[in-house]
Design a protein that fits this description.
- By secondary structure, this protein is α+β, with helices and mostly antiparallel strands.
- It has one domain.
- The protein is 36% helix and 38% strand.
- Strands 1, 2, 3, 4 and 5 form a five-stranded antiparallel beta sheet that branches.
- Strand 3 and strand 4 (79-86) form a beta hairpin.
- 11% of the residues are buried.
């Protein structure tokens, strides 16, 4: 029973560590998207919204994550965007429609 606990705790630690790397990649991508369209990237952070196991195109299992972020055009209204990742690879990124001041 002790080994099972060690394996479980090791898996949780790995999941947390891997998530930090994916979160940083998503944060950099969100910042880049905001700079490209000339809007403010709010709070300089992304938040993990979805997490699940998923298969890569080659059949390997990986962790799918969706990170959301907020941006603004005028400093008052907040809009959301998201970044989908499989492992450390960005699959998709979108920003909701926003008003141009």
């Amino acid at each position: 029973m002790g080994w099972l606990l060690v394996i479980l705790l090791s898996f949780i630690a790995w999941l947390w560590w891997d998530g930090l790397g994916a979160k940083e990649i998503a944060r950099q991508k969100a910042k880049q998207l905001c700079e490209q369209v000339g809007v403010q990237f709010l709070d300089d952070t992304v938040v993990a919204r979805k997490l699940r196991l998923c298969r890569h195109r080659d059949g390997r299992m990986g962790i799918y994550r969706r990170f959301i972020f907020e941006f603004s055009t005028d400093g008052e209204l907040r809009y959301q965007g998201y970044i989908d990742m499989l492992g450390n690879v960005i699959l998709d990124s979108q920003m909701e429609a926003y008003r141009i001041p």
